[in-house]
């Protein structure tokens, strides 16, 4: 059953209106359902499978290919958090269906349903081929690592175009290493705790000014190099700090003195993508 987590959101009371999550049965969707509901948010969600935690309150089964079905399911919602898609480099036709057409259908369905706020799950992989010590900034040029990273560059561009044409409140949430706890030296910079993910989304859901925004999904890590004016403007500040896990990582053999185990911001995914060029 649903594990409810109260992390201190909801002060002042949350704005009225339903929140709709695509991909709500997945890791991030489950995390948000468990934390936004205790704060007072009325969460509805969709996925192609039922959630493993048994929480079917507000669940409707739809597919990203069905724009009409999604528009109908989103009716009455004031905000959509678009998480659905595929997080790995896979066959191009599947990537197009889920991360290109699927993102287009989700954003268009939200607009058709009268939704005013859209939070799009982007990724650090859209910038994954920058050096590992790169400063996370709003104007960082896209350097995607792989087909997945490329799809997130597309998603951000599409969301910006929709926001500017239709006056939406839009956030490209550049999620970094979303884990229960850090497991590598790279994570000491880029860890995004589950609780902080909900805190960030809560701040986005309270924002009322139309426009396109980019915000980096990281916790309050001592080692992160970041310049995020949107986070400052909306009042997001990560509470959790990967530095609290240094002793555990060192005990497990992690070299915590290094910036990252990999040369690129995108970590092992970026390294794997680049290694293709060295194959005979």
Report on this model:
The chain is of the alpha/beta class and 280 residues long. The protein has a single domain, classed as NAD(P)-binding Rossmann-like Domain (Rossmann fold). Helix content is 35%, strand content 18%. It has helices at 27-36, 67-73, 92-112, 146-166, 187-190, 194-206, 229-234, 246-251, 267-275, and strands spanning 18-22, 42-47, 59-61, 77-82, 117-123, 136-137, 169-175, 177-178, 191-192, 211-217, 226-227. α2 (67-73) packs across α3 and α3 (92-112) runs parallel beside α4 (146-166). The protein is globular. The N and C termini lie far apart (50 Å). 49% of the residues are buried.
Set down the secondary structure blueprint:
Elements: E1 18-22, H1 27-36, E2 42-47, E3 59-61, H2 67-73, E4 77-82, H3 92-112, E5 117-123, E6 136-137, H4 146-166, E7 169-175, E8 177-178, H5 187-190, E9 191-192, H6 194-206, E10 211-217, E11 226-227, H7 229-234, H8 246-251, H9 267-275
Parallel strand pairs: 1-2, 1-4, 2-3, 4-5, 5-7, 6-11, 7-10, 8-9
Just give the CATH class: Alpha Beta
Helix-strand string: EHEEHEHEEHEEHEHEEHHH
CATH level-4 homologous superfamily: NAD(P)-binding Rossmann-like Domain
Summarize the amount of helix as a percent range. 25-40%
CATH topology: Rossmann fold
Alpha carbon gyration radius: 18 Å
Separation, N- and C-terminal Cα atoms: 50 Å
Ranges where pLDDT stays below 50 over 5 or more residues in a row are none
CATH architecture: 3-Layer(aba) Sandwich
Number of strands: 11
Q: Provide the residue-averaged pLDDT.
A: 95
Bulk shape: globular
The order of strands across the largest sheet is 3-2-1-4-5-7-10
Number of helices: 9
The count of domains is: 1
Structural class: alpha/beta
Strand content: 15-25%
